[in-house]
């Protein structure tokens, strides 16, 4: 752990308790940062976000190599992406029109819900960290990520069989 940091106890408990502690800490925090990846069949999403309960979230999603910059201001989501993203998601005309420009939409617009889900702390935590009872969880090794000691927890969803691994800080808030 960093100098002077006290352990938070998660390294000494079972996997469901670690996930429960992480969920509680994230849901209680006014903001948190998230760096990671979501890998599914045919798609990889790299996540670099700062998520806030005061509608000031921001960050970047890189979807199969194409960066999408996101910014939440109040109830409006702004996003910007390059030509390759727009060509894949729309058309050459969309790429020409929107590439490199900020596009805005109400956070409640269903067409952009995938982006707004990443910027809403409650929806994001529900998607990334399922309730401990809904997933088969296994505690992994303790290691260091970005200078922070962490414990790995891997799980398989009981609803769709998807697999994931999260790394929870072993000092400070989980």
Description:
The chain has 174 residues and is an alpha+beta fold. It is 25% helix and 41% strand. The chain is built from five helices and nine strands; from the N terminus they run αβββββααβααβββ. Helix 2 packs across helix 3. The longest helix has 14 residues. The chain is elongated, with a radius of gyration of 18 Å. The two termini are 13 Å apart.
N- and C-termini, Cα separation: 13 Å
The helix/strand order is HEEEEEHHEHHEEE
Radius of gyration: 18 Å
Q: In which range does the helix fraction lie?
A: 10-25%
**Sequence stretches where pLDDT stays below 50 over 5 or more residues:** 1-5
Determine the structural class based on helices, strands and strand pairing: alpha+beta
Give the total of beta strands. 9
Helical segment count: 5
The major pleated sheet works out as: 6 strands, antiparallel
Shape: elongated
Strand content is 35-45%
Strand order of the largest sheet: 1-2-3-4-5-6
Average pLDDT over all residues:
86
């Amino acid at each position: 752990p960093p100098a002077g940091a006290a352990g938070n106890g998660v390294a000494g408990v079972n996997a469901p308790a670690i996930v429960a502690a992480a969920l509680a800490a994230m849901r209680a925090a006014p903001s948190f940062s998230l760096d990671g990846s979501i890998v599914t069949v045919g798609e990889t999403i790299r996540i670099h976000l700062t998520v806030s309960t005061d509608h000031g979230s921001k960050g970047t999603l890189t979807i199969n190599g194409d960066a999408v910059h996101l910014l939440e201001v109040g109830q409006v989501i702004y996003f910007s992406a390059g030509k390759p993203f727009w060509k894949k998601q729309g058309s050459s005309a969309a790429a020409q029109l929107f590439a490199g420009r900020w596009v805005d939409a109400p956070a409640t617009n269903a067409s952009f819900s995938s982006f707004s889900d990443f910027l809403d702390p409650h929806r994001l935590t529900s998607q990334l960290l399922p309730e401990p009872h809904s997933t088969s969880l296994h505690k992994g090794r303790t290691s260091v990520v970005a200078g922070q000691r962490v414990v790995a927890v891997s799980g398989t969803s009981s609803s769709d069989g998807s697999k994931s691994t999260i790394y929870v800080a072993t000092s400070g808030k989980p």
